[in-house]
Structure formats: structure tokens, C-alpha cells
Amino acid sequence: MGLRRGGKSSIKNVVFHKMSPNETLFLESTNKIVKDVIQNSSFVQFQIWDFPGQIDFFHPAFDSDAIFGSANALVFVIDSQDDYTDALQKLHLTVTKAYTVNPHIKCEVFIHKVDGLSDDHKIEVQRDIHQRATDDLADAGYENLHLSFYLTSIYDHSIFEAFSKVVQKLIPQLPTLENLLNILISNSGIEKAFLFDVISKIYIATDSSPVDMQSYELCCDMIDVVIDISCIYGLNEEGDGSAYDTKSASIIRLNNSTIVYLREVNRYLALICLMREESFEKQGLIDYNFHCFRQAIQEVFEIRRRALLEQSSRVV
Hints:
By secondary structure, the chain is α+β, with helices and mostly antiparallel strands. It is built from eight helices and ten strands. It is globular and about 60 Å long.
């Protein structure tokens, strides 16, 4: 949600439909609710509802329970290059209504289009929006309503990292995945590991060490390189099949003695590890530990699948 021309549809198309950021300049303004089903992997499965900014969804004619009742996350987009006074008022109205209907909903605020701002101005805008939004909630008695703020732009990787954080909050198995990654890196001499959704370049889990934006961008670029080269050389003679499959793997050596290592986990997920060159001398150990990790991930998938089956059979 957000005001019109805030960049909501552009975000959705760039992250989930591989649209070039420059192509979004030609998108028409959204004038109806657009629903997209995202089913990239067993973890990344959800619907995205894109709401037009010019329609008042709090009019009595609209059913707030139907809009917010089953929602897991509300992403509110604010144009950082515009006067955001009206956007803050709409944000307050939206999140309080959503919280009243559904106290478990996660409220995320994307401070968008920051590519046109200086670094100092970005920090100042984020501080101002954060302060005013939280003060408004406190004054209205919503101390338990927590907002998360992200600086985003479709012209760099910040929008993918922000959506990664949003999606991670919707994955109940996240602590298990993080624990598996921690075990993997501690036993393999790996400095940082990401579990990526290959299609959207959202990382659905990483180990407990802090995320360095540069490392994340490097991993995203590696996925692009692997997919592009696989599309040229990896398809069979008929030209069909998937460019990314069970044999997909890549090793890139950087000039600072760092190794970036990609391995396929399943047809939608990839494990990308960053490590020192001397650690990669024990590649056999790393590969063995990776196979153990992949088997554990498959067991998590299987438990989740059985849980969903039991849940649907109870509903029926």
C-alpha cells in the first residue's frame, strides 16, 4: 500500500517479474487491486496484493476484515523525494486499522526512491519518518505496534535486501535454517553463507553474522552470471529444460583471495558461500558438509509439507 505514484508496482515488477528498472518508467498507474501469486520455492509462497493509492479503502463500502484479516505483512511505500506529510497520515491510518483487525500482521515501511538522495539526506529522511510515525502511534496508544523501516531503490540491491527481510519474517522455519547455516560455516571454514531464492534473488536465510551489503550484492551478481551462462551453454541440444538444475555450481575467485562458491540446493534455491582461498583447499570437506546441509533442508521441506497437508485436511 501507499500513495499513488509512490513506486509500489515498480517494486513488485522489478523484484518478482524481472522487469528492468528503466522499463518501470512506462508502467501505468494502478487503478485496481492487482493480485500476484508467488510460488518460487517451498519457502517463498505467498500472494502479493498491490493496492492503488488513489482509492480510499477505509470507506464503509470496503471490508477491512477481508483486506487485512488473512494478511501476514503490510508493506507501506513512501516516496522519499516527495513531501511525505500526507503519506505519514495515510501510513498511520493504514497500520492502525490493520493492527486493529489483525494484531499479528507485520508492518513494514519502505522509504523508497532514495537513489536520488545523498547519504546524509537518506539518514535524515529515515530518522524524520521513523520519529514522526512512531510518535503518532504512541500518541494514539499503539505502543505495541512495531514498524520496521527500510531505505529502498529499484536501481540497486536495496529493494531485494528489504524484501528479503520482509519474507524472512513470514518463514516459521527461519530459526532452523539459520541454525543449519551456522553449523555449516563453523565446520567448513566459511565466512558467510546465504540461502537464496534464485528467481527473485531474495535471500530467505543467512547465518547469524551481520550482513554486509557488498557481500549480498556480490552474491546477487553471481546468480545473474550463473543463470546467464547456463542459458547459453547449459541447455540441452533441443534447447529445452531448465538452465538451473541439480548440476548447477560455480566458483569465482576474487583478487582479494576470496572465494565465492555457489551450489544448487533444489530447483529454486542456491547456497552461496564466501570464504578465504586457504579454506577452499579443503573442498572435499566443504562439499561433504554441503550434502549434509542439503539433506537437512530437504527434511525441513518434508516436515513443512506434511504439516500443510495435515492443516488442509483439518480444514476440509
